[in-house]
Each structure stands twice: as structure tokens, then as C-alpha cells.
Known about the structure:
Elements: H1 2-25, H2 32-66
Amino acid sequence: MRLVLHTVHVLTDWIDTLVLAALFFTPQKRSMRRFVDVSESALYWRFVWLTWLPLYALIYWVPRWVE
């Protein structure tokens, strides 16, 4: 169940990112709210991959070093 919830969370965040990109690049008046939305989305994805780096090492490399 946890994997399903994680997958749904990642998919909805990808959809959110795609919608933000579509809204940002449409020829309409850009509001400051869109810039804040894009900034928050970028901050979230930066958090995701920076968090994944130590987790990757912990899951895939530490067991090989401990053997």
C-alpha cells in the first residue's frame, strides 16, 4: 500500500509540474502567483533529489560496503 501511495504522490506532482509549465508558457499575462508556484515546485523537486542522494547510498552502497 505504501508503494501505491508513493507512486500516486509522484504522479500527481509530475502532473502538477506539467500543468504549471503549460500555464507558464501560454501567451497570457503572467501573474506573480505563477512565479511563486513555479518556485515552490522547483524547491520541492530539489528537496526530493537531494533527499534521494543519501537514501540511495544507504540502500544500495552501504550494504555492499558492510559485507
